[in-house]
UniProtKB/TrEMBL annotation:
Residues 9-216 form the PPM-type phosphatase domain. Coiled coil: none annotated. Transmembrane segments: none annotated. SUPFAM superfamilies: PP2C-like (SSF81606). InterPro entries: PPM-type-like_dom_sf, PPM-type_phosphatase-like_dom. This is Serine/threonine protein phosphatase.
Length: 232
């Protein structure tokens, strides 16, 4: 999707893949927009509903990523028919984006040539790797935080100053495509979120796949604030 009314140009794409439902969701809202991508936990309508509710609530809150994540948490927890999800949100400020996340959705900085990962996966596998221990493949899919379960002190927080671009992805993309491959696709003239989603599924993806690409940085009038530290 392209939003022609926003001050920034952005594209999102999502595919169900071989799953029974698409439990991913992506959205952008405002001028300049707040962006969010969510991945429902499981392959069910309840997981899909949680992801949609989470991104809808997150992008309506422009005060900062903590407020956006708390809004998503309140919306999901208050809906008895929704399951759970993981979520990344990017809130613009004068110097770039404030970013918050739970789970294994990711944000990358895109400079037109290469990608730099900004987030740090909240998974059991990452927990063990951070401590110098081996992790089994099954641990890659076990998240240690989620929208329903994470307290505010467990939110991952960071900031990106004056990006050339921003990429948000679910694990159906970034666990199939290494950063070098994603960057190669984005360097092509037809670069788009759709190219990443299609490539992830062509590479044998077995999950939903979603990407949201922001092509230019936000420009606001308020002074820049200090960057957040990334939560472990």
């Amino acid at each position: 999707m392209i939003n022609p009314l926003a001050q920034v140009v952005w594209h999102s794409a999502s595919a169900r893949g071989p799953r029974s439902v698409n439990a991913d969701a992506a959205s952008g809202f405002g001028e300049p927009p707040v962006f969010a991508v969510a991945d429902g936990i499981g392959d069910s309508p309840a997981a899909a509903r949680a992801a949609r509710i989470a991104v809808s609530a997150a992008v309506l809150t422009s005060a900062g990523p903590v407020d956006s994540l708390l809004a998503a948490q309140g919306a999901v927890s208050g809906d008895p028919s929704s399951g759970d999800c993981v979520l990344v949100v990017a809130v613009p400020y004068a110097g770039g984006y404030h970013i918050g996340w739970v789970g294994d959705v990711r944000a990358y900085a895109w400079d037109g040539a290469s990608l730099r990962q900004l987030t740090h996966d909240h998974t059991l596998a990452q927990y063990f790797r951070d401590r110098g221990q081996d992790a089994s493949p099954q641990m890659e899919h076990m998240v240690t935080t989620s929208v329903r379960t994470a307290g505010a002190t467990r939110f991952g927080l960071t900031a990106l100053r004056r990006p050339a671009g921003l990429l948000l992805t679910t694990d159906g993309v970034h666990k199939r495509l290494p950063p070098a491959t994603m960057a190669e696709l984005l360097r092509r003239p037809s670069n788009s979120a759709r190219s990443l989603v299609d490539a992830a599924l062509a590479a044998g993806g077995t999950d939903n796949a979603t990407a949201l690409l922001v092509e230019c940085e936000p420009r606001l009038s308020e002074p820049a604030t200090e960057a957040f530290a990334v939560a472990a």
